[in-house]
Structure prediction request, 205 residues.
Amino acid sequence: MTELDIIFITRFFINLASLFLLCYACYYRVNKNSTVASSFVLFGVGIFVITYLLHGVDMSMEFSFGLFAVFTMLRYRTESISIKEMTYLFLVTAIALLTSVGQMNLMDLMTLNIVICLLAFVMDSKLFSKGYLTQSICYERIENITPANRNILINDLRVRTGLQVETVEIEHIDFLRDTAQLTVSYSPQASNATHTASQTLIKTS
Prediction:
């Protein structure tokens, strides 16, 4: 029979600390989305509690992971979630499952969780990421969305938005209205520098 003893409390706080470290020190530091970060923490806490309690009725690790994998797909399939958020969701699930039913000792468990969080921190740092931001744009010059006019499209977006647009993804094309929904990635540092230079030029003139 599963009891809420000192082992449960210790593992619960290890799980909670690991989730806060992953979701706020890693995810929120770059994406600044507190809603998603807090949802990840609550999701991980829920997985930990249910899996730990069900583990007392001889539920296998494989069945536990499969159960929450199915739950994740059913819950989030109606939301538009990015690849990065899906990755963090998987890490949250992994930490919660390892902490709740993992057979390693507490010191090894904390070490493994810290390594996972540290790896996520490094991969989201400027060492591997240029820190691009994204913006959704409704674009009406539909003739520029063809692959042959990709450079024209990027240059037009740079001029009209003032952003240092680097990449463009076409999300949806409406041929009835001759518009396209685009997601552009841009460098905020370069965009701010361009804006500052423009303002200086205007003042000088």
